[in-house]
Every structure is written in C-alpha cells, then in structure tokens.
Write a structure and sequence with these properties.
The protein is mainly alpha-helical. The protein has one domain: Growth Hormone, Chain: A (Up-down Bundle). Helix content is 81%, strand content 0%. α13 packs antiparallel against α15. It is globular, with a radius of gyration of 21 Å. 54% of the residues are buried. Keywords: Cell membrane, Membrane, Transmembrane, Transmembrane helix. This is Nitrate/nitrite transporter. It is found in: Cell membrane.
Length: 436
C-alpha cells in the first residue's frame, strides 16, 4: 500500500481500532447503575471496576512503550483489540463480581496497547508538519467511541439486555482485529527499518533518558492536568452524577456525552493548528485548559443541585477540551525525544492522565461511600457535590508540575541555542515599537 491514498487508508483503520477501543473503555460508564444492580455493588466497589481498569492501563503504559519500540504498532493493536474483546465477552457472561472485575482488567490491558501504537503509525506515515494536527484528529475522532457507548450500546443494554450488549461489543472488537491485521502497517514501504532490537540494558537506559528529559515530564504533567477530569466523568461517575446528583433522565445524561464528543471535535483541530504554529507557546494552551476546567467545575459545585441545564452543558463542553489539551503532552514527547525512544516517552506521558484519573475515580467512590454507607444511599446530590471536590488537589499538583517542568525545558532549550522569550516580550515585539 503506497502513495497518498495509502497513508489515509492505514490511518483510517488505526483510527477505527482506537475508536472501538474507546467504546470498550467507556462502556462501563453507561452501565454503572445497571452493574450496581446486577452485582449488588456499593459505590466504592463499583468504582473499583474502573480503578482496576485504569490501574492496569496506566501501569502498562511504560512497558507498552518499550514493546512498541521493539515489536511495532500492528502487533500491539491486534493484540489489544483481541484482549478487549475477550474482556467484553467475559463481562457479558459474568454473573459474579470477581469475573466482572477480571473482565475490566482485560479491557484495561488491551486498551493500554492501542492508543500510543496508533500514534506511532501517525508519526511514521505523515510529515512532521502534519503530525500535530493528525494527532489531534486521531484522539478526537477516536472519542467517537463514546457515542457508540452512549447510544447503540446503551440502547442494547436497556433493550435486549446486559449479555447482548457486551457480547455485541466483543464481536465488534474481533472484526476490528481482522481489519488491522489485513491493512495496518508500521511504516510506509521503503522507510528505514530499525537496525536491531535493543538490549535490555539499552531499553532501561532509554527509559531513564526519556524520564530525564524535561520535555517528557512536561508532557506527563500536561496530560495529567488536562485529561483526568473528563476521563473520570465519561468513564465512571458522569452518568451516575447527572442522573442521581442532578436529576436528569438516562436519555438526557447520555445526550450530554454526545455533547462531550462534539465539543471535543470542534476544539481539536484548532488546538492542533495552534500547537503546530506556536510550538514555543504550547504550555499556555495547557494552562488555559486547566484553568477553564477548574472554573467550570467551581461554577457547577457552587450552585445547589440541580444546576441549570445550560451550566451542565457548559461543564461538559469545557471537559471536552481536556482531550485535545492532553494531546499537547504527546507533542512534547515527540519533539523533545529522538525517534528511537519515542515509544517509551509517549508511554510515560500517557501514564500521567490515567494515573490521575485512577486516583480521582477511587477518591470519588470513597467519598460517596462515606457520604452514604450501605450502597445506593451514597448516590445523593449532596454526596456527589462533596465528592467532586477531590479534583482540586490534582489540579494544583498538575499546574505546579507543568510550571516547574516548563522552566527546566526552557533552560535546556536556551543552553542548546534556542531561547524562549517570555510571552509578554514576544507580544510586545509583535506589536512593534510605540509611536507618538
């Protein structure tokens, strides 16, 4: 498969694999209350499903980055699709809590193999100037998998039932694995192949070098600060919060997930173009996304529930910008690391947001349990309102990390002969000297 058309076909198949992976990842978010009834799970136990899924996902990011550098994207994406399909099949048939937990662990493991592998395909098949925009498009179009969860999967769940919904999701995963096996290729024909497989010592040294790179750590804190709130909302607690905490119907709550996807699609191309045109100002975009997210949540939590519908729509739209904002973290990994260790660097960056999401998912579940022990009693407007405040600790840590890592990255750039002028100086220079 060669030429301009070939790269778009390869990218499209990788994108579909990621889109279906997002469907698998977020499927439990629309099934949370159904799972509570099916397995008799209290809030803290219910959050444990997603916590374990995220724990596996986040914990595998660095090893997957190493495997990506070693085996290539095609092998990892096929393996990930089949692993997630196995998890969904097991969840559909599970009648006990332990089997359901194992199922979500499988989904987390397969999910971990997918996204950074698809990003490596983008980097191999497109020019460096196009990569930031294509990365945004991949991440955002892939979030359409949330619509597959919120609409057809939810319809199956509340129609034919639990087993039909998750077995159907498993079948879709198998179909995707076949398409990837047939079409996806790690690099264009004629592109240089890695000379040899690195030794274990070289792999460890590559990880150390990637971590010592200030740009990698800047990417990690970027991903952590921008991504976690939307992930927690979509993956676990958003739909229960909108239904039990804000009094919305299940259909209306699922509709807000569609708003989440649409707002992300609108923001993504602009974020990607900004990143490509102003690589020295990427961090200001990151800081703006975090600041807007904090402001939106603060406005919602200050209003006694139920909040006005327009305010909830605004919250969801702002949360959607976290996905495009987190893509900037991967751009840091790409531009601050040589090609032979980009898999490891991207794995480190991707760890940030999902580790933060894991901690917040667990903390919200624990807070709901404290607010209302004994199961469903925790799903009250007041309990949700208190539980969401745990996010502020993570935002403070992420902003501190972004500012500290940015300072170190700029010092390194200056030492290498590429000083970054302060924003106010750059803006003054662009306006030119004042004239009387």
């Amino acid at each position: 498969m060669t030429g301009h058309r070939g790269r778009w076909v390869v990218w499209a198949v990788g994108l579909v694999a990621y889109l279906v992976g997002v469907m698998h990842r977020t499927s439990f978010g629309v099934a949370g209350l159904d799972a509570a009834d099916r397995f008799g799970a209290a809030p803290a136990v219910l959050s444990g499903f997603v916590v374990l899924q995220l724990l596996v996902y986040a914990g595998l990011q660095v090893p997957v980055g190493v495997l990506l550098d070693r085996f290539g994207a095609r092998v990892l994406v096929v393996t990930g699709a089949l692993t997630m399909a196995a998890g969904q099949l097991l969840l559909g048939l599970a009648a006990s809590l332990p089997l359901a937990i194992v199922a979500r662990i499988l989904v987390g493991a397969g999910d971990a193999l997918t996204f950074i592998s698809v990003l490596s395909v983008v980097g191999a098949w497109f020019s460096p100037r196009r990569v930031p925009v294509m990365t945004q498009l991949t991440g955002l179009l892939g979030q359409g998998g949330q619509l597959l969860s919120a609409l057809p999967l939810a319809a199956l769940l509340h129609g034919p039932g639990w087993t039909t919904a998750f077995v159907s999701a498993a079948a879709l995963g198998v179909a995707v694995s076949i398409a990837v096996l047939v079409v996806l290729r790690d690099r264009p024909p004629g592109a240089p192949v890695p000379a040899r497989v690195p030794t274990s010592r070289e792999i460890i040294e590559g990880l150390r070098s990637a971590w010592r790179e200030p740009g990698t750590r800047l990417g990690l804190w970027t991903h952590a600060g921008t991504q976690f709130s939307g992930t927690v909302f979509v993956l676990m607690w958003g739909v229960p919060y909108l239904i039990a905490g804000q009094g919305m119907s299940p259909a209306a709550a699922s509709g807000l997930l569609a708003v989440f996807v649409g707002a992300g699609l609108l923001a993504g191309p602009g974020f990607g173009e900004f990143t490509a045109r102003h690589p020295m100002r990427r961090s200001w975009l990151v800081i703006a996304v975090i600041g807007l997210t904090v402001a939106a949540w603060t406005a919602v939590l200050l209003v006694p529930p139920p909040a006005p519908r327009w305010l909830l729509v605004l919250l969801v739209a702002v949360l959607a910008t976290g996905g495009p904002g987190s893509m900037v973290g991967f751009d840091y990994a790409r531009t601050f690391n040589p090609g032979y260790r980009q898999g490891a660097a991207v794995g480190i960056v991707n760890f940030g947001g999902f580790a933060a999401a894991l901690l917040v998912t667990l903390a919200v579940g624990a807070a709901l349990g404290v607010a209302g022990p004994g199961g469903a009693g925790g799903y009250t407007p007041g309990a949700f309102r208190a539980a969401w405040t745990v996010q502020y600790v993570v935002w403070a840590m992420a902003l501190t990390g972004v500012l500290a890592a940015r300072r170190r990255a700029r010092r390194k750039l200056a030492a290498e002969g590429t000083p970054v002028r302060p924003l106010r100086v750059a803006l003054a220079a662009r306006r030119g000297p004042r004239t009387s």
